[in-house]
Amino acid sequence: MPPQPEQYEYLEHTADAKFRAYGKTLEEVFENAALAMFNVMIDTKKVLVETSLEVSLKSPGLDTLLIDWLSELLFLFEVEETIFGEFRVEEIREEEGEYSLKARALGDKWNLEIHPFETEIKAVTYNQLELEKTPGGWVAQVVVDL
User: Is 74 contained in some domain?
Assistant: First the structure.
């Protein structure tokens, strides 16, 4: 991986949103993928950290865990009406062929006046999904359905 000062970048896609996230660690690439996804919907720099929600997940594979993580955050946004601007993935482990994640999503109650909606994400997809370890860390590529 070439030196990447950015946490993520958006890539060309005909109908949906596609991004590539970077991280020195697996946990960091999961955090940056979440940040990239939420920046599709709102400006995360305007999100105040007023609340924190705990997220614990288990999945049969790392790529599935990434999709589950992003999907869970989207679900929490829709159900809890909480917009997130910071993510802290505390741990990703593999045990007996299953991967688990423990994390916190930090944000605030969604207020349309403060956080105007830019784009609605319907779902996180497996389309063109990539998650790979590189000499410089980790890279994830994700497409979200708009």
Answer: yes
